[in-house]
Design goal:
With 321 residues, this protein is an alpha/beta fold. It has two domains: 23-138 and 253-320, 3-Layer(bba) Sandwich (FAD/NAD(P)-binding domain); 141-249, 3-Layer(bba) Sandwich (FAD/NAD(P)-binding domain). It has helices at 5-24, 38-49, 81-92, 158-161, 177-186, 207-212, 260-263, 301-320; strands at residues 26-34, 54-58, 98-102, 105-109, 115-119, 124-132, 137-139, 154-155, 170-173, 193-196, 216-218, 222-228, 231-237, 243-244, 247-249, 253-255, 287-289. The strands form four sheets. Strands 1, 2, 3, 4, 5, 6 and 17 form a seven-stranded mixed β-sheet that branches. It has a five-stranded parallel β-sheet with strand order 8-15-9-10-11, covered by helices on one side. Strand 5 (115-119) and strand 6 (124-132) form a beta hairpin. It is elongated, with a radius of gyration of 25 Å.
Length: 321
């Protein structure tokens, strides 16, 4: 069948329009920040002030959502973590080149030109710099009753919450030399600390230092954590008397909260965090990681803000250079 030239031209024009429309759906930015916590907002602020076009994509599920206050943050006393995020977004709103979007980044690809990212609603974004600020997944040990106390009287970081429970009856959950060191550490905040090993203690030369610091050791398996309204009241054991405690520090199980690091072939440490250099650069060109996602120690809001700022400086330098 012979196709009339006008019909052929119409088909070509339609095909061209479809390709252009498809291309138009792919947004292009200088930098995309995954995560709207302190690290991500800090990175976006520096990038925005450097007049980069920035998109912040946040899923709205912060790792510290259960916490009531942020401790140890200069010029902020007892600020709620959700309120801190809100203030950060308000500050970014003064920069028209920074866009904030509630969504999830579900995939990322380094093939082709630049970095391709796909959002949860199916939208595609291409970026020259990708900042992974999505934090870590923190899972407390499976102690009965811990869920209602997590982030309010059961904590994982004494630097973040030790001051607020200073000089009160405290406990540390864990076993082995590392748990003993944690208990000695917590004893600097209180003279009444109990190390709960939740079974036969695997302590070697740590018993004497614990005793010298006034730290008692309870080896009985824990039956449950008892409390109400987020406040720990006592630790109950299967045998022996219970311990009246006001707060408990535990070691969490940690991991990446999504598959982005794996999709981008980022190297991970034994702790499950992303390997970066001193400025937040990963081994993948154009990809940076900040905050808890890339920190093996000193996990705090103050530290997260610093890593976000530092990586953003590096990203701007790399974009210009």
């Amino acid at each position: 069948m012979t196709v009339h030239p006008l019909h052929r031209e119409a088909r070509v024009s339609t095909s061209t329009r479809l390709r252009r429309r498809s291309h138009a759906r792919t947004r292009v930015v200088d930098a995309l920040v995954v995560g709207g916590g302190p690290a991500g907002l800090s990175a976006a602020l520096v990038l925005g002030r450097a007049r980069r076009n920035v998109l912040v994509v946040d899923s709205g599920r912060p790792a510290n959502a259960n916490a009531h206050v942020v401790g140890g943050l200069l010029a902020h006393n007892d600020v709620n973590p959700l309120e801190l995020r809100r203030q950060g977004r308000d500050q970014l709103a003064g920069h028209p080149n920074v866009d904030y979007r509630e969504d999830a980044v579900v995939d990322a690809d380094t093939r082709g030109e630049g970095l391709a990212v796909r959002l949860g609603d199916g939208a595609a974004v291409r970026t020259r710099a990708l900042v992974l600020a999505h934090g870590l997944r923190y899972d407390p040990p499976p102690l009965p009753g811990v869920d209602n106390l997590w982030g309010r009287s059961v904590f994982h970081c004494p630097f973040c919450d030790g001051w607020e429970v200073r000089d009160r009856p405290l406990a540390v959950h864990g076993n082995g030399p590392e748990a003993a060191r944690s208990a000695l550490f917590v004893s600097t905040w209180s003279g009444d600390v109990v190390l709960c090993t939740d079974g036969l203690a695997r302590l070697h030369g740590e018993r004497a230092p614990l005793a010298d610091a006034g730290v008692r050791v309870r080896e009985e398996p824990i039956r449950r954590l008892a409390g109400s309204d987020g406040e720990l009241r006592r630790i109950e054991f299967f045998t022996g008397p219970h311990e009246r405690r006001d707060a408990l520090f535990v070691r969490t199980r940690r991991g990446q909260p999504n598959g982005l690091a794996a999709a981008l072939d980022c190297d991970l440490t034994d702790e499950g965090t992303i390997v970066v250099d001193g400025d937040g650069r990963t081994g993948v060109p154009g990809v940076y990681a900040v905050g808890d996602a890339a920190t093996d120690h000193s996990r705090s809001v103050a530290s997260a803000i610093g890593t976000g700022s530092r990586a953003a400086y590096a990203a701007v330098t790399d974009l210009v250079g």
